TrEMBL record:
Its main location: nucleus. It comes from the Eukaryota. This is Isoform 3 of zinc finger protein 740. Residues 229-238 have a biased composition (Low complexity). Residues 4-31, 32-59 form the C2H2-type domain. It is found in: Nucleus. The chain crosses the membrane at residues 377-398, 427-444, 717-739. GO terms for cellular component: chromatin; nucleus. GO terms for molecular function: DNA-binding transcription factor activity, RNA polymerase II-specific; RNA polymerase II cis-regulatory region sequence-specific DNA binding; zinc ion binding. SUPFAM superfamilies: beta-beta-alpha zinc fingers. One of its GO terms (biological process) is DNA-templated transcription. Residues 48-81, 210-238 are annotated as: Disordered. It comes from Aspergillus udagawae. The keyword ATP-binding does not apply.
Amino acid sequence: MVLKKCNICDRRFKKTEHFKRHERSHTKEKPYECNVCHKRFSRSDVLSRHAKGHNAASSSTTTGVVKSDQHQTSSTQAYDQQHSRVNGNGQFIPSINPVGAQQTQILPFIPREISLTTPDGLPSSSLDCLADISAHQARTHPQLNPMVMGHQQAYLGWGDVTAAEPSPYRVPVFGPVPNDILQFWLEPRGDTASNPSPIDLMRDASVSFVDDQTPASPRAQQNGHPVENPSIQSPSNIPSERFARVQRYWVTPTNNTGRLMNTLWRDVATSSLDNILGVYSGQPFNSPSGLSGDLRYGLDEECRQNLLATFGQARLSMPNDASTAPRMSEAPFGSPQAFPPAEILDMALDLYFRNFQPLIPFIHIPTFSAKRTRSPVLYVMCMIGMIILGTKGTTSFVSKNFNLVLDKITGELAKCAAGSETSVGTVSTFAAAFLFLNLAAMTGEKEHIAKSQMLYINLMTIAQRHGLFAATEGQILDMSLYEAIPDVDARWKAWSKVESVKRLIIGLLLLDSSYSSFLSTSPIIVPEAIQFILPCEGAIFDAKNAMHWMQLIRIGKRILMPTLVAPSENVDLPTLDSSVDSLCMHGVLAMVQLRLCEAYHRLLSNRANYPFAPCHTYAMDGRARCLPTLQLQIADKYREALERLNPNAVVMWHNMCMTLTADIQIFELAAGRSGPLPARKALEDIAVWSQTPAARRACLHAAQIYKAMVNRKASDYTMFHSVLAVFTAALVLGLYTFMAPRPPETTAGCISVELLDDVDWQQVGREGFTSFMEPRGNHAFTASDNSTVNFIRNGGTLYLRGIPVQGGYQSARRILLDYAGLLKDSGKWSVRKFSHVLHIMSDVLMDME
């Protein structure tokens, strides 16, 4: 049989009708025309099914089709009369051939063109749908022999009533459906030529990897063994076209990145970019100090146009409150109100570096240039600056653009997940997502945090899958990486890019710690497997140029730092240098905080246990019992650093100690998070908890959080976790004061503690962590020389600024108002709702605007 070859795609066919049908898929020829509506079709079976839709002319349109198969129909009817009988009930009973009793009964074959109609007034049933689907299957796959199809129909329809003779008691399953609607849903795809069926692929000789057109030798044909083509014995002789076809039909996308951590440091250091967040432009780099005009970071009108082309073309979503910025929502595209001018963007970028950069200093400022920074990163930096600016226009612009930027960054992160982005591009996308999640926490809008949860989960999951938190499992970072670069300026830039990535990893640890606490969920990063390289000192990271960088190295500044592994019961916290900076300390504390959060949600989430102090439950768990010990190690090893650094670090430590001794979910329920019924039950639990040593220690940590935030300097910017800690401390101390009983007369006069006095936590030690947890009865601890230890053990009277704190509503109300006022002055984070909750708890009516 002669194979017919398509001149366009080189496919081969054995049957002429298949070949002509395939050619019409290329030429779009439609030779079959409907006699009623004159609509044209490329296949006759599609025309026949279309003709059934013309109910008025159904008899005239199907006459020719029925006549064409009259002989076959009559023969099947004769066969039907010979091999069937009707019983007394009028049911159709197929007879069995006595000669071949085990052979499947052959029912008459019904051609596709014959309409399987139902009696008048009877709606379409599931059998009609199955008939149309079977016709569709016959079109999309090669036609089988009629006798074989008859066998299949007999097997599938054994004992069933045919559609031409429906049973009078059959109940319709589906409602009537017009034929044109069925035709729409069952019409074959137009890309069947590009997506052939498996049988077509087997018939297509061009898909095979071995040429089967070479005739076999007579000896090989007699032996029944195929003969291999000697021209493809070598891999170099395989045509490239075959590999290209395999690549085109391969299902999964190509992963070009692999595991990022395996080659991260080399890829970052050897990239041609000057900054890890930059984009290559082919022009020599000028430091920010050499930029023209008053633009420190190079954000001019050209840079604004680039941002406008990337983000300004999309339709801005309407704000929740139409009165927020009525003129901006109605402004036409390109007007001054539609997109901020370059002066506002430059001002916002400057505010970012003044207020947010000191919190997570991972951007290398000496090599930063707005013109060379990737648009998503630069745009989010400007949006953070606009929130810090806090004007009506900037806040409205951020709110209107939030969903647009979220979708943009989510799409970029999807490329990183698929491995279609480079190593440097992946790191830049991680930075954009990290900044955007911080922006969501700064806007003060509840729905922004809710919409960003999926981005937070994807970012942490992808970063962990790439090994960013497993430094020892990736490429070793040593001096050989920098010694291979002879030029000093290039070596400085390579080191700065590596250092930026190290600092970004710590920022991701802090983000997971803050978001998991804020959302009351388990952290995504596995705490027991965390390994990260400590960042270098901020002084050498801020070196203005390569010469300054080399001078700092000569006086003893280090450009390589040790790797820190997750502490546990057998692994102590490392001893850090006395000159440790805030970012390094926050990385260590975030690692312990993630372990604490994981233990809480694994053991106590939604199942609070008596006596409602988590440390009591942790002491019985093999993985969590080391948590109190780690807090003592922090107080012992990092005492001087915590006193010297900004208050965010010491607030983080006090918050961890407070969550060890107080079940925070009970306090949130008692405040009314889930309504009145859970609140009353939680208040009863707090009344029991307030009589334990753990409760009294929790109150001391809550008061120290208030003290640290009140005494902070104007240059000490507040981090997101510090705001969460202030709100939690307000609930703990306020509800303790509200529910705690008055101290007995035996201890009220001799034990007193001022909440805002300094506490020597090394002397306090493990008091309240592992001591007697039951409510105080006849049991009493021995007296100590330290008044704080005596208060934790036996209770006493608390003083706040010299005023005794008596149990009850009035004292609790005053404490809640103090913390609410502190939250208002805690920076640009989303603290407005926290402050409102505390004011509502203190029964003070506030204007919610």
